[in-house]
Write a structure and sequence with these properties.
480 residues, 5-stranded mixed beta barrel, binds iron/sulfur cluster, alpha/beta, 6-stranded parallel beta sheet, binds S-adenosyl-L-homocysteine, binds FE3-S4 cluster
Length: 480
């Protein structure tokens, strides 16, 4: 079918939303929607939202303000604009969104977007045919709006068009693949168990089929996604439940797939088998995002993380014993209720001990409906801000020191796309750093040895080592 309408999807939040946005766009192709990257060109706009912190949620309302102005213009021109709010704010706030922003036609949560074609149909059919009342102004009160925030009994993945060769093409050389959704951990600060629901793993066979289709379409690197990805326990083809390690081993055997990653993992679910996979699988990149949130046992307990700082240290030791070159990143929250200077110092100590190559740092944001939102002893804003800056400075120093240690070394780089400069490509190091290198565009998709020459702010600059020496002579073992 040829595209006669356009959809603009704006994605906030985590990689799972990025994946969901792609899949939403897949469901719209049969309806004649092509993607556009400008709001002004769109017939349908979908905001795929994030509820994790207050700032993330508020961004949606400011964007809806901009959309309201555009919709008023459209109404004057007689060209429609359908507005949808999807994702975690939709799940958490439901109808409240329409009350606050009457411009919205559709609200649906992360578990219901496979029903998007049906929702669009309901909104479209519900609209008053303008031919019968040609002069009537748009009357918002009579517009049909739909809100879908139930957790449906059916599995959305079974109702989405499968990712086949046609859908996979054009997505580039790296792809996300959701293998697990939801969370049963209930950290006291976190909305995810409420917005994404209970932990559910997709069957291994479906994941392998999707991965094969991606590989056949030229994808070289897949990042497996889940809010708790290492808690994966999907049905295996042999009837038993597969762990993430088992799944990774099967994925590593798919021809063409050179690199595997997974995110986000919880320290409690790093089992021996998964640690062994880091030792055994060359395709599994030596980079692990392993959030810890705090280095204080008291705060970890109040957060319901159910491990101590020492448990985490010992876990990292075991992972490093299996894969000595592994680089670690983390997530940290400062200013959790009751966090003292000593608690914060314990976090700094942990950061120094682990020697992260990067991390996301956040100021605690109380979220409605979570247990921590009711805790007393809020940390004053100014104190939290100061802690955030100190922690970030320490993390930045670690990131810089790691990057500096790579200068002069030759790394296998997966070339992903054209760079800003003429003749330049951008790729990724095994440690997820962007790498700029002069190379011809036909090398996109190849993994090439690059000697790091200098550093950008958050990137590496290098030269193709194979121009000077055969790839086999490179100092670093290449993954493909
Ligand atoms: N499942 C992942 C994290 C998902 S949310 C895990 O367990 O690690 C991503 C990050 O956002 C979290 O790791 C945490 O650092 C941060 N975050 C979550 N809720 C937050 C809140 N209420 N305030 C500040 N940061 C928060
Ligand atoms: Fe949120 Fe904790 Fe679940 Fe991560 S493990 S998604 S932080 S509740
Ligand atoms: Fe945000 Fe939902 Fe992801 S709250 S972080 S988009 S799971």
């Amino acid at each position: 079918m040829t595209a006669d309408k356009t959809v603009f999807i704006k994605t906030y939040g985590c990689q799972m939303n990025v994946y969901d946005s792609e899949r939403m766009s897949d469901t719209l192709v049969p309806l004649g929607y092509a993607q556009t990257d400008t709001l002004e060109a769109a017939d349908l706009v979908i905001l795929n939202t994030c509820h994790i912190r207050e700032k993330a949620a508020e961004k949606v309302y400011s964007e809806l303000g901009r959309i309201r102005v555009l919709k008023a213009e459209r109404d004057r021109e007689g060209r429609g604009l359908m507005v949808a709010v999807a994702g975690c704010v939709a799940q958490a706030e439901g109808e409240e969104i329409i009350r606050r922003a009457p411009v919205v036609d559709m609200v649906f949560g992360p578990q219901t977007y496979h029903r998007l074609p049906d929702l669009i149909d309901r909104v479209t059919r519900g609209e008053r045919p303008s031919a019968t009342e040609p002069d009537a102004p748009a009357a918002p009160a009579r517009r049909t709006r739909v809100v879908e925030t139930e957790f449906p009994a059916e599995d959305k993945f079974d109702h989405l068009p499968p990712v086949d060769g046609a859908r996979a093409r054009g997505r580039g050389v790296t792809a996300f693949l959701t293998v697990q959704e939801g969370c049963d951990k209930f950290c006291t600060f976190c909305v995810v168990p409420y917005t994404r629901g209970a932990e559910v793993s997709r069957p291994a066979e479906k994941i392998l089929a999707e991965a094969r289709a991606l590989a056949a379409a030229g994808v070289r690197e897949i990042t497996l996604l889940g809010q708790n990805v290492n808690a994966y326990h999907g049905d295996g083809p042999d009837g038993g439940a597969w762990t993430l390690a088992r799944l990774l081993r099967a994925l590593a055997a798919i021809p063409g797939l050179a690199r595997l990653r997974y995110t986000t993992s919880h320290p409690r679910d790093m089992d021996d088998d998964l640690i062994a996979a880091h030792r055994d699988l060359g395709a599994l990149m030596p980079y692990l995002h392993l959030p810890v949130q705090s280095g204080s046992d008291r705060i970890l307990a109040a957060m319901n993380r159910r491990h101590t700082a020492d448990d985490y240290r010992r876990l990292v030791d075991r992972i490093r014993a299996a894969r000595p070159d592994i680089a670690l990143s983390g997530d940290f929250i400062v200013g959790f209720p009751g966090e003292t200077d000593a608690d914060f110092e314990a976090t700094l100590d942990l950061v120094r001990a682990i020697d992260y190559v990067g991390a996301y740092t956040f100021k605690y944001s109380p979220r409605p409906g979570t247990p921590a939102a009711d805790l007393a002893d809020a940390v004053p804003e100014a104190v939290a801000t100061e802690r955030l800056h100190r922690l970030q400075a320490l993390i930045d120093a670690g990131e810089r020191a790691f990057a500096e240690s790579l200068v002069g070394r030759t790394l296998p780089v997966l070339l992903e796309k054209a760079g800003r400069q003429q003749g330049q490509l951008v790729g990724r190091s095994p440690y997820l750093q962007p790498v700029h290198v002069m190379a011809p565009p036909e090398r996109i998709g190849a993994i090439v040895p690059v000697t790091v020459e200098s550093l950008g702010r958050h990137s590496l600059n290098g030269t193709l080592a194979e121009a000077r020496e055969p790839a086999g002579a490179s100092a670093v073992r290449l993954s493909a």
